[in-house]
Amino acid sequence: MSRLIVVSNRVNPPSDTGVATAGGLAMALAAALRDNKGLWFGWSGQTVEQYTGQISMQVVGGVTVALLDLEAQDQNEYYNGYANRTLWPLFHYRPDLVSYERSFDEGYARVNTRFAETLLPLIGPDDVVWVQDYHLIPLARELRARGVKNRIGFFLHIPWPARRILNTLPHHDDLAQSLFSYDLVGFQTEDDVDAFSDYIVHDVHGVASPDGRLDAYGKSIRVKAFPIGIDAEDFAETLKSERATLFHRMMIKSQRGRKMLLGVDRLDYSKGLEERFNAFDTFLSNNPEMHEHLFLLQIATRSRDEVDAYQDLRNRLDNLSGKINGAYSTVDWVPLRYVNRPYRRDELAGIYRSADIGLVTPLRDGMNLVAKEYVAAQDPNNPGVLVLSQFAGAAEHMKEALIVNPLSREDLSEAIHRGLSMPLKERKRRWEGLYDDVKRNDVTRWRDAYVRELTAAVPAEVRTGELAET
Questions:
Q1: Distance CA 454, CA 448 (A)
Q2: Whole-prediction pTM value?
Q3: What residue ranges do the domains of the chain occupy?
Q4: Of 92, 135, 157, 248, which is the active-site residue?
Q5: Among this protein's residues, is 157 annotated catalytic?
């Protein structure tokens, strides 16, 4: 019987206590593996003086995981370097923040080779391998070079950039070509599929078929959008937990009758936090009658502190939050509560439920599961309003949200005002449509749709042979 092997940069299944940060990838993958008797393979997050290739096997939160350690040089060049200083800003449409260094390229190739060599003995003849995200784009090519014939799929959790953006990356053609060693390449949205197909057709002179097949580099692959969801049933149970109830009551008491706007994000320049703060400043300036009647709680969990761009962003947000509070605060009211510590998933559930407005306004995002968690946490009898960026992948399906351009202060300010004044009947109607989508397109459907498509894919050697004949 075949197993599902998930491969990702970090292996971080949530523990049985429900501890998790705002990110949704760990929750989604753990839900996909628990009932599948699968394996989750990746970096332990630890560094050693000399790489040995040894694997640590353990069970975490009901998921069997296989971990390997990397050298400090690997972490600096592969993770902090190529993954987070090169690909992440480029794929999020920030070429101005991209760093190109040869050592980054070398580290990225080296670690993908190490992943392939270490994973190889763990792959059974019938196993299906599912590789996750931009850290490991070349992994299938490395596995194929070592004789692996299994079906191998890839899923990109972040956006795929427009071809003119991708063209600024040195060796962009090699990166795209490596994706043709997979059987199935999945994206979050149809927009991402179109961007990748556009690059292959116009820059590589490949051929795109109406059935989702792309032919290029003498190979043929399937590409398709698989919008990721949350574990809606599990989240509903989380809302009933003692910790979620405690935090909900605590937040209601803390509000003191005021309306609460809420943002929950990693501290990242792709999340539009500066723009959100500035839009809130505009809202306060334009609506003085609302002073002391509402506040914004922004939870921004620190990440990638080793990267200069993140340190700079943190400093700017510290200054901006201080400026806003200095301009508008009174002796018993602070308009902006800015918090950098992480919260458990059950704690976040209680906080979500307390918020009148959920602000999910990234400048660019693959999907954004916070938007779905916020909707799932709402009281059906008195739901809050989701304000959602048009540049989040979730906006492709969550049409009942208030869709905004996060780069426009006025657009976001007006959406906040509209959400706060929205009649209960309209709030219920919008929430019902959003919640129906969250339940229908949950993580189980995402998993089943992707794995079903991958296991039905024609094996690589057959596809290559057919293409050669044509």
A1: 10
A2: 0.93
A3: 4-229+445-465, 232-440
A4: 157
A5: yes
